[in-house]
Structures are given as structure tokens and as C-alpha cells.
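F.,

This is the one I mentioned.
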């Protein structure tokens, strides 16, 4: 590292101090006698006792100190401390449950406090910063997370009273069904939008009038709020279901999967069409001319030259569309389409935040995984094709 660079990593310092402040001053967790009664919050010293509370803060202080020596060995040490803190998070909750949970209350529940959630957030940001500084590949960071997941799995028996786990245990089959429905809606909408988006983008390239009209309609569609679009689809789909027998046999109705699928498809088309159109337009004309000079016909140039070179940017459109669809599908639960949003709205109606988290956390995890995997695949294709990704959000 050059001597001219500042001898301080302000990002690592700010994140470690923010995590330390949250860890010390916010409640680590809460314990409630049952699902209805509001739980009693415990701060870090109350939950663990002062000796363990002080010991749990030492790695965060170590991260703050390492921020003053932004060198590669210090970054590796900071990465090890960050992974250690992630490994220990469920352990602190298990110790709190062991110290304060009354065995005479079988319905008692342990809730995760603000300190636990914010610590997970700050440590995740630290991982992103350290991965960037160390130029780690995705698989290298994933390998480092293996012991974290192993530690969480080993700590799981001590967290049997965790409220989130109890919500899942009581709704195992419903959760699996909702997860599958969520994935089917997202996969169907993204897959269909990919095919339609490619066809619309090709038509736009052939006719400027189609381009202007198509983008105008797709942009207008994006401005309609999701709930309003679901509502607009109810009446026409109910009318079609009542008059077309084969649509009714497929399960098409004013509520359910059909309006959800059509709304998701409508929202997915703009990013897919835009990225595909840009990708096809940005292919080097010299490459296309060389392909024609080799005797390739128009269709061959499209299939063997233009589409392969455009694929990285098209894949960025798929990434954007997938992440957007994963979030929007949660709202579709309001019209009976199922999915993980069902637990979110049930939890809001029952004032059960752990039930809300049971639906929200898997949606967040799916969005992050889809973004990471598709982004990594797009970058790999970029390296093979020598192009710079030109995704349009």
C-alpha cells in the first residue's frame, strides 16, 4: 500500500464503533412467558453478566484498533475477528436463555433484540468492506463462512426456545408450501419476462416506432403501485374465468396466482427489455461486420455473435428483475397468491413480529443470494467476452 494513503480505514473504524455502541447500549434479547405477553428486554450486562459482556466487546475493540493499520495482514486479522463475532452471536443468546429462562414456563420464548440484529447488519457490512480490500473471490468468502454456519448449527439446540424457531416449528408444512409458491411465482415471472423481453427488444430494434411506444407503455406500467395493479386485474380476470372454461380449469380467477403472475410479469418487463435492448445495441459494429464478411446470414449473426456478446448485460437485467420480483411477490399474498408474504401479513395482523420475520428473512436471504449468484455469473461472462456490464437499473 502506498505511503501516501491515509493510515486509517474510516469504514472499518466507523462500522466497528457503531457495532460496539449498539452492542453495549441496546437490548441483546428479550424473554416472554408466552406468545402474547410482551417480553422483558435484557441489556448485554444483564443478559450475560459483566465479565462475559466485557469479553464480548474485546473483538470489536480489536477491529477498531486494526482500522488504524490498514495493511493486508491487519485486514486478514480483522476478517478473522469478524467471522469470530458472527460465530458467537447465537452463543450469547443461548447463554442469555440459560441464565434467565424459567424452566417452569414451557411456553416461554426468547426474542432477538435490537443489538443482535444490528450487530449482524454491521458485521455483514464489515465483511463486504474486508472482501473488497482483500480482493477475495466469492467462493473464498463463502469458505470462510462455513465455520460460522457450523457454529450456528452447533448452537441450535440451546436456542430451542427462540421465538423465531418456535414459529417455524409450528408452521413447518405451511412454510415449505409458501416458499415453493414464492419461488414458482418468481421463476415463472422472470422466465416469461426473459422470453417476452427478448422478443420485444428485437422488435424495437427493427422499428423505431415500436421502440418509442414500447418504452412508453412499460414506463407507464412501472408507475402503477403494485396494490393498484393487483386491483385492476381482479375484475377482468374474474370475468374471463366466468366465461372461458379452460381458463377456469387452469385456476385463473380474480384472486390467486393469476393476477399476481401477470402483475409480476408487467413489472419485470421494463428492466428486462431495457437491458436486452441496450445489450444488443452496444455490440461492436466491427465484430458484426467481420461476421457478415465470413458469410454469416442475418440469423446466424444474431444467434452466434450478437446474442453471446450481449449475454452479460442481459444477465444483469435478469439479476435486477429477479431481485425485484422476489420482493414484490410478498405483496401478492394480499390477493391470495400465497408465498412468504402470507406470514408477514399474518404477523402484522396478530402483532407477532417473529411471525413477520419468518416471512421477511427468507425473502431477504433469497434476494441476496440471487443478487450475488447472478452478479458473479455476469462478471464471469464479462471477463470471457471482454465487455463492461452496462446494466440499467
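My design for it:
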Amino acid at each position: 500500500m502506498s505511503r501516501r494513503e491515509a493510515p486509517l480505514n474510516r469504514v472499518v473504524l466507523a462500522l466497528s464503533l457503531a457495532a460496539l455502541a449498539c452492542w453495549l447500549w441496546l437490548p441483546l434479547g428479550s424473554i416472554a412467558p408466552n406468545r402474547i405477553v410482551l417480553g422483558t428486554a435484557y441489556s448485554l450486562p444483564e443478559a450475560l453478566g459483566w465479565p462475559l459482556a466485557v469479553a464480548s466487546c474485546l473483538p470489536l475493540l480489536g477491529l477498531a484498533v486494526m482500522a488504524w493499520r490498514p495493511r493486508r495482514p491487519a485486514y486478514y486479522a480483522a476478517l478473522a475477528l469478524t467471522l469470530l463475532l458472527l460465530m458467537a452471536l447465537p452463543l450469547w443468546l443461548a447463554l442469555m436463555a440459560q441464565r434467565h429462562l424459567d424452566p417452569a414456563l414451557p411456553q416461554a420464548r426468547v426474542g432477538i433484540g435490537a443489538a443482535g440484529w444490528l450487530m449482524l447488519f454491521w458485521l455483514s457490512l464489515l465483511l463486504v468492506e474486508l472482501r473488497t480490500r482483500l480482493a477475495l473471490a466469492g467462493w473464498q468468502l463463502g469458505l470462510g463462512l462455513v465455520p460460522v454456519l457450523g457454529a450456528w448449527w452447533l448452537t441450535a439446540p440451546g436456542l430451542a426456545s427462540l421465538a423465531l424457531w418456535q414459529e417455524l416449528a409450528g408452521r413447518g408444512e405451511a412454510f415449505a408450501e409458501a416458499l415453493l409458491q414464492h419461488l414458482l411465482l418468481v421463476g415463472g415471472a422472470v422466465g416469461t419476462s426473459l422470453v417476452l423481453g427478448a422478443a420485444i427488444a428485437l422488435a424495437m430494434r427493427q422499428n423505431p416506432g415500436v421502440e418509442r411506444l414500447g418504452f412508453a407503455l412499460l414506463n407507464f406500467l412501472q408507475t402503477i403501485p403494485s396494490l393498484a395493479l393487483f386491483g385492476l386485474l381482479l375484475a377482468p380476470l374474474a370475468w374471463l374465468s366466468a366465461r372461458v372454461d379452460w381458463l377456469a380449469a387452469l385456476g385463473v380467477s380474480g384472486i390467486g396466482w393469476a393476477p399476481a403472475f401477470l402483475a409480476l410479469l408487467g413489472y419485470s418487463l421494463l428492466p428486462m427489455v431495457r437491458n436486452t435492448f441496450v445489450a444488443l445495441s452496444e455490440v461492436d459494429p466491427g465484430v458484426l461486420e467481420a461476421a457478415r464478411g465470413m458469410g454469416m446470414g442475418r440469423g446466424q449473426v444474431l444467434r452466434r455473435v450478437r446474442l453471446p456478446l450481449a449475454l452479460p448485460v442481459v444477465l444483469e437485467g435478469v439479476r435486477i428483475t429477479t431481485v425485484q420480483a422476489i420482493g414484490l411477490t410478498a405483496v401478492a399474498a394480499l390477493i391470495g397468491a400465497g408465498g412468504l408474504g402470507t406470514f408477514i401479513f399474518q404477523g402484522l395482523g396478530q402483532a407477532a413480529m417473529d411471525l413477520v420475520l419468518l416471512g421477511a428473512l427468507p425473502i431477504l436471504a433469497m434476494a441476496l443470494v440471487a443478487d450475488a449468484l447472478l452478479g458473479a455469473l455476469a462478471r464471469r461472462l464479462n471477463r470471457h467476452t471482454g465487455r463492461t456490464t452496462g446494466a440499467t437499473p
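The CA atoms of residues 17 and 233 lie 50 Å apart.

Talk soon.
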